[in-house]
Automatic annotation (TrEMBL):
It holds the Pfam family MinC_C. Belongs to the MinC family. This is Probable septum site-determining protein MinC. Keywords: Cell cycle, Cell division, Septation. Cell division inhibitor that blocks the formation of polar Z ring septums. Rapidly oscillates between the poles of the cell to destabilize FtsZ filaments that have formed before they mature into polar Z rings. Prevents FtsZ polymerization. GO terms for biological process: cell morphogenesis; division septum assembly; regulation of cell septum assembly. Residues 140-239 form the Septum formation inhibitor MinC C-terminal domain. PANTHER family: SEPTUM SITE-DETERMINING PROTEIN MINC. It comes from the Bacteria. Residues 108-127 are annotated as: Disordered. Interacts with MinD and FtsZ.
């Protein structure tokens, strides 16, 4: 029996953000499909080159209704990547996955004559108006309870209390925990190899940085319960004591 191939890079899990358009059917569905056909005739490539999410919020759909709608869209070469507004128990094999938590964006203008929709223009800053900067840090004054998931992909996450077992923090940047870290901490989730994880009391179920991860069993007992600093060194997570 041979050992693992150390020449291959380790498996990485990374977060990635994609811009998707949302299709929201309006009853009666037969009429909505006719309107969709008219749109495709005006702009044939508009719906075939984009990531599309199907939003059925508020529609009285059972599984067969949803299957029929997905089949009708497939006939029109419209590929649905996910379904929003319906519980996962209503879906099954053959359906796109259920999605939740999408952030609203501006409506997309449908082009005429098959032209691609132009990207929204970003306003140029002027002397009298400074562009608003995106918030880089999320500070939580309360502990993160078991079952909670905190996701902040725009920067660092700082927890002034503890992170309970069964909870999860996902940050685009670094994670700082001023209490005990007992849940899962995933830093650098959008590809930041310089992200760090700092905890005053280190008892995690799992830590990950830039897609590389270690479970509690991988970490071992040496630094368990201590104040630690975790970072990447090449393709390995290095955990050192802060004391």
């Amino acid at each position: 029996m041979t050992g693992p191939d150390t020449s291959r890079p380790p498996i990485r899990f990374r977060g990635r953000s994609f811009l998707a358009m949302v299709l929201a059917p309006v009853p009666p569905i037969a009429q909505w499909l006719e309107e969709l056909d008219a749109l495709k005739q005006r702009a044939p490539a508009f719906l075939t080159v984009r990531a599309l999410i199907l939003d059925v919020t508020g529609l009285s759909f059972d599984r067969s209704d949803l299957a029929n709608l997905c089949a009708e869209l497939a006939k029109r070469s419209i590929t649905i990547l996910g379904i929003e507004g319906i519980g996962p128990t209503a879906l099954g094999p053959g359906f796109p996955p259920p999605l939740t938590g999408g952030k609203a964006a501006d409506d997309v203008t449908v082009p005429e004559g098959g032209a691609a929709a132009p990207a929204p223009a970003e306003p140029m800053p002027t002397a009298s108006a400074k562009p608003l900067a995106r918030a880089r840090s999320l500070v939580l004054d309360q502990p993160v309870r078991s079952g909670q998931v905190v996701q902040h992909l725009d920067g660092d996450v700082t927890v002034m209390g503890s992170v309970a077992s069964g909870s999860e923090i996902i940050a685009g940047g670094s994670i700082h925990v001023y209490g005990a870290l007992r849940g899962r901490a995933i830093a650098g989730a959008v590809g930041d190899a310089n992200a760090r994880i700092v905890a005053r009391r280190f008892e995690p179920e799992l830590i990950a940085i830039d897609g590389l991860y270690k479970t509690a069993d991988d970490l071992g007992p040496k630094l368990w319960g201590q104040a630690v600093h975790a970072r990447l060194d090449d393709d390995a997570i290095v955990v050192t004591s802060l004391d």
